[in-house]
């Protein structure tokens, strides 16, 4: 892997893309009174918190619940937990959120948490979609689609988690 890092998104672009994703979520779910945002720990959850704040500002009459999913990514089988009772999402629209969509494994594991309860619909939102899908998971809402080679790495830095200025890097 190269030590050279290329800036893909700066803090202003991340903010702009987040606002656009929030508006897309609202447009796609305008008839819903409540939407459940499911953030995949850690950066996906931070991104979900940001989306929740934006959504509450632009649609204060709607409810936006937040669930944190923690996935053991090193495991070959689903090992995950959530911080809220699963019934919170029952018969609702849920948006599964992460920072980067690469192979789709993490999102597929996140989806697995909700297979045993009825949902109105499930959508996915990511800041960066790398399009290297090995699982049948695709982003419904995304900030940017990025064509990369498999050896390249995309890293998102979010101030709340990384204690640094927001940025997305390709290395």
TrEMBL record:
Record InterPro entries: PRTase-like, PRTase_dom, PyrR_bifunctional
Xref: SUPFAM superfamilies: PRTase-like
UniProt entry tagged with the keyword Ubl conjugation: no
Keywords, alphabetical: Glycosyltransferase, Transferase
Keyword Glycosyltransferase appears in the UniProt entry: yes
Pfam hit, one: Pribosyltran
MF annotations from Gene Ontology: glycosyltransferase activity
Annotated protein name in UniProt: Pyrimidine operon attenuation protein / uracil phosphoribosyltransferase
Organism for this UniProt entry: Sphingobacterium psychroaquaticum
């Amino acid at each position: 892997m190269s030590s050279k890092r290329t800036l893909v998104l700066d803090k202003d672009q991340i903010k702009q893309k987040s606002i656009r994703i929030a508006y897309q979520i609202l447009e796609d779910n305008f008839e819903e009174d409540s939407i459940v945002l499911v953030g995949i720990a850690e950066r996906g959850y931070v991104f979900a918190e940001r989306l929740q704040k934006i959504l509450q500002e632009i649609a204060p009459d709607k409810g936006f619940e937040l669930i944190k999913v923690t996935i053991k990514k090193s495991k070959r089988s689903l090992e995950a937990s959530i911080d809220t009772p699963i019934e919170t999402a029952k018969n609702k629209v849920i948006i599964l959120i992460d920072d980067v969509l690469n192979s789709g494994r993490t999102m597929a594991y996140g989806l697995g948490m909700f297979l045993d309860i009825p949902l109105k619909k499930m959508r996915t939102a990511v800041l960066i979609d790398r399009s290297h899908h090995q699982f049948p998971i695709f982003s419904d809402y995304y900030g940017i689609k990025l064509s990369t080679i498999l050896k390249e790495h995309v890293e998102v830095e979010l101030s709340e988690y990384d204690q640094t200025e927001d940025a997305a890097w390709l290395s």
